[in-house]
Amino acid sequence: MGRLDGKVAIITGAASGMGRATAELFAAEGARVAVTDFDEERGREVADAITAAGGSARFHRMDVSQEESVAAVVEAAARDFGGLDILVNCAGIIGVDKPTHEVTEAEWDALFAVDVKGVFFATKHVVPHLIERGGGSIVNFSSIYGLVGNDEFTPYHVAKGAVTMQTRQDAATYGRYGIRVNSVHPSTVLTPLVEGIAAEFDGGLPAYEAMMTANQSIRRLGRPIEVAYGVLYLASDESAWVTGVALPIDGGYTAR
Length: 256
Ligand SMILES: NC(=O)c1ccc[n+]([C@@H]2O[C@H](COP(=O)([O-])OP(=O)(O)OC[C@H]3O[C@@H](n4cnc5c(N)ncnc54)[C@H](O)[C@@H]3O)[C@@H](O)[C@H]2O)c1
Fold this sequence. Notes:
This is NAD(P)-dependent dehydrogenase (Short-subunit alcohol dehydrogenase family). The model has no long low-confidence stretch (mean pLDDT 97). By secondary structure, the protein is of the alpha/beta class. Helix 1 packs across helix 9 (224-235), helix 3 (67-81) packs parallel to helix 5 (117-133) and helix 4 (105-115) packs parallel to helix 6. The protein has one domain: Rossmann fold. It is globular, with a radius of gyration of 17 Å. The chain has helices at residues 17-28, 40-52, 67-81, 105-115, 117-133, 154-174, 192-200, 204-212, 224-235, and strands at 8-11, 32-37, 56-61, 86-89, 136-141, 179-186, 246-249. The site of nicotinamide-adenine-dinucleotide has 28 residues, from helix 1 and helix 7.
């Protein structure tokens, strides 16, 4: 018996990294999964791989920064699978590595359009379906940098702080409908997003890993599946009394 048997999940940013790992894990645990991303080629690959492994998935191209795109895909996914139970807001971009006084308005807006407005749009359009169902679970991808600051990637960290607060606000608001809202806060996880940053780093991935994990108790980069297991717990009925929680999955980074 799967931990998500009978559930329907819609996942944003599911073509890559932790979104992909979450989609595959959810399907293996019995969920029917709407795999969404604006990367059509890789998104289709994920849905095809899930189907080939005996799971149930369908790809929809969705740009989380465009409300019409989000609204249309949410409706299509709910129609396909006869309703929705779970939303995972995973789509995200890293943006520019600049301190506040160097960031342009366009750079700030481009980052917030995806990382903050994307969570808002998907939540806005999925919530009515969860209310119709009598409840559900929303899991938002924030970051350790939605809990604490550092001296890099300022717009991204401020955006992840907004996601932390959107989670608390929605948890407080939607409990009356049986909808739980929680966030996960990974430290650095080896995904294409991080491979891109590490490639630019002096000394490459080994030097980047040593620097990024210097403040962790478990001094290695995370693996996508290690975060996906946390998302699975929060999405499943095993966490039926858990809402408004910010769950660090961070090798102990925020414990120190
Ligand atoms: N990798 C890390 O170390 C790390 C740490 C903490 C938090 N996070 C967060 O976890 C989430 C997943 O990160 P990842 O490392 O797996 O990233 P990733 O780059 O591997 O995957 C992100 C996915 O989001 C998609 N995407 C980007 N913009 C989109 C848009 N406008 N509409 C729809 N899809 C879009 C991309 O196509 C990609 O498939 C992100 O929200 C990220 O900020 C990552």
